[in-house]
Amino acid sequence: MKEDDEGYVWNDTSFHSQKAKWFRPSDLVTGTDGAIYIADWYDPVVGGHQIKDSAAMGKIYRIVPKDKKLSTPTLDYDSDQGLVEVLKNPAVNVRLKAFEALKAKGDTAIPLIEPLLSDENPFIKSRAIYLLAQLGEQGKQKTLKLLDSEDEMTRLEALRAIKANGNPSLLPSDQLLEDPSALVRRTYAAMLWDRDWEVRKKAFELLLKDFDPTDSWYLDALGKMAAGHEQEAFAISQKPFP
């Protein structure tokens, strides 16, 4: 153990004194420069009950890749290309502003967004898919076409984007339930939890064909399909499949 200049005593995992200062990360954000900022609150009581820190003491830590100098970009909300660049930004608050501005343009923003569908950064690509689904009828149809992509994650994000935009009835049920990806199949199946049993029954039967019992998430999706009709679902599961 050692005592620092402020009189706090440190060991390998924590430090303490009569003033009892501890590491209590209370918030985390990503800045526009790509750095991670962590707010550290010094209250000694775990969980925030019986607050002992009357002075609101703490620090903000900035985390960056080793030997990499980050710079704060200029955020241009006044031009189309500027909005696209801001949409790529790692800071959620600024990219949301760009997202909403591009969304307001409707289908005229589609040519601006489509190049991002091939971006090597999967997060940027995902944002583009979610935005495309909200760019009018044309954007919606282009998102549906992504369900035919050879890339598993592209199909998954397109599925989620259509659902998030309030259009689950547009999704091709049979195609998704027989998708080669277990991730896509089980994600779509979980979306059907509130449908009538006859709809869920068909989904349940299709999901069983490629069921891997070691996949706990897949098992959970099957459970959602069977809710309220467990006995019939169990009987179906005992039947051999061709």
Structure, explained:
The protein is mainly alpha-helical and 242 residues long. Helices cover 43% and strands 10% of the residues. The strands form two sheets. The protein has a three-stranded antiparallel beta sheet, with no helix packed on it. The protein has a three-stranded antiparallel beta sheet with strand order 4-5-6, with no helix packed on it. β2 and β3 (15-16) form a beta hairpin. It starts with a strand and ends in a 5-residue tail after the last helix. The model is unreliable at 6-20 (pLDDT under 50).
Structure characteristics:
single chain, 242 residues, mainly alpha, 3-stranded antiparallel beta sheet
Based on helices, strands and strand pairing, what is the structural class?
mainly alpha
Mean pLDDT: 86
Low-pLDDT windows of residues: 6-20
Major pleated sheet: 3 strands, antiparallel
* Number of extended strands: 6
